[in-house]
Write a structure and sequence with these properties.
It is a single chain. This protein has helices at 2-23, 29-64, 79-93, 95-98, 102-125, 132-150, 157-198. By secondary structure, it is mainly alpha-helical. Helix 3 (79-93) packs antiparallel against helix 5 and helix 6 (132-150) runs antiparallel to helix 7 (157-198). The longest helix has 42 residues, at 157-198. Mean pLDDT is 76; it is low at 191-197.
Length: 199
């Protein structure tokens, strides 16, 4: 549940950053860069704390019951969370120097986020069936992020606005995936419990 909450917090931060990028123009970019840096830092810290808390909980559970047939799996290391902290600190400490490259960095973060989404989907698909739409939606965000990275940028306003919309789409996908995967895991756990009770 903590990992789900972490995903939702990360999605809310991404959505807030997306709204800021779409709403404000280049004259507000310096302050906007600092706000984005603060949001990314907060999101990354929450992701890392949730990871370590969940990891310790699972390790304790495994130590108490080492003979369990199916041990709970350890969560994935929060690569996106660590990247968010680094990016956030850089954006806060030197916003003026970072304005030109902020679109490239945000596109890179989007790519990392989509990779994280696919890792979660692959893990969930081993347990239950994932509809095709859940695989296609992150692919659209990934394609736009890669296009921003490889295309030359003469002005920052338009690419940042595009990334803003992509961040909002990413946030929606992240929330839906987190809820869907959590419900699937919970239904499988309940089904397994019922089978054990019946036996």
């Amino acid at each position: 549940m903590r990992i789900v909450q972490s995903s939702i917090v990360r999605a809310l931060v991404a959505f807030a950053v997306g709204v800021l990028l779409v709403k404000f123009r280049e004259d507000m970019l310096r302050w906007l860069t600092m706000v984005i840096g603060l949001l990314f830092t907060a999101s990354g810290v929450i992701s890392c704390v949730a990871y370590y808390v969940e990891r310790r909980r699972i390790q304790k559970a495994n130590a108490i019951s080492p003979d369990m047939a199916e041990k709970p799996r350890l969560p994935f290391f929060p690569i996106v969370g660590v990247g968010s902290i680094i990016l956030g600190i850089m954006l806060i400490s030197m916003p003026s120097d970072f304005i030109i490259g902020v679109a490239y960095v945000l596109a890179s973060m989007l790519i990392l986020g989509v990779i994280g989404q696919y890792a979660s989907l692959v893990r969930a698909s081993r347990v239950f069936r994932i509809p095709i739409i859940f695989w296609i939606m992150p692919l659209a965000v990934l394609a736009v992020a890669i296009y921003i990275l490889v295309s030359p940028m003469e002005a920052t306003a338009l690419p940042l606005r595009i990334i803003g919309w992509c961040l909002m789409l990413y946030a929606v996908i992240e929330c839906v995936n987190a809820i869907r995967i959590h419900r699937g895991d919970r239904s499988i756990t309940n089904h397994t419990t019922e089978q054990v009770d019946n036996e």
